[in-house]
Amino acid sequence: MLTPGPDSGPAGDDFSAFVGSAATRLLRTAELLTGDRAQAEDLVQTALEKAYLRWHRIRADDPYGYVRRVLVNAHHNWWRRKPWRERTTADVPEHAVAADTTEDHAQRDTVFRALATLTRRERSVIVLRYYDDLSEEAIAAVLGIANGTVKSTAARAFRKLRITPELNEARMARPVEAQS
């Protein structure tokens, strides 16, 4: 993560405090948007770099909202890249790593796979609404789309998610008291 240099003064301290408090949440948002931890880290780094350069202007307002918007825009720009640029792959290099079989990781993987079935816009709307807990109006402002487009996009995304077999299996596998 970015950290200001030793002569950065109080502004650098503010930025360091912001990064310390917001980095985990930003990383989780980016990971939900991308479905890939490495790409999520790159997106957060890009967003924090841009915020650092404008910190003197944004720190008094809503720095988290600004960085989140930069993060979403960077994610959208990634989709516009040419095919010969860096891309993630399903083939993992061979190395000795113990398999993690905890239930939390299985559920997270199920959610990532379900989100991967959505379009870029649908995924952004769902993540911003249900992970970042933004209102429809705030999502419209972040994505630069109409409020009605947010509503219709969310409805389309939920229709897709309702028919996703993995999510239905996961929901059925939970104990009855956890489903209510």
Q: What is the fold named in CATH at topology level of the domain at 9-81?
A: Rna Polymerase Sigma Factor, Chain: A
* Number of distinct helices: 10
Overall, the morphology is globular
How would you state the average pLDDT, rounded?
Answer: 81
Return Rg in Å: 18 Å
Give the C-level CATH assignment of the domain at 9-81.
Mainly Alpha
How much of the sequence is in beta strands? Answer: under 5%
What is the terminal separation in angstroms?
40 Å
What's the number of extended β-strand segments?
A: 0
Query: Largest sheet, described in full?
Result: none
Helix content: over 70%
In the CATH classification, which architecture of the domain at 9-81 applies?
Orthogonal Bundle
Question: Would you tell me the structural class of the helices and strands?
Answer: mainly alpha
H and E order: HHHHHHHHHH
What low-confidence regions span 5 or more consecutive residues with pLDDT below 50?
Answer: 1-7
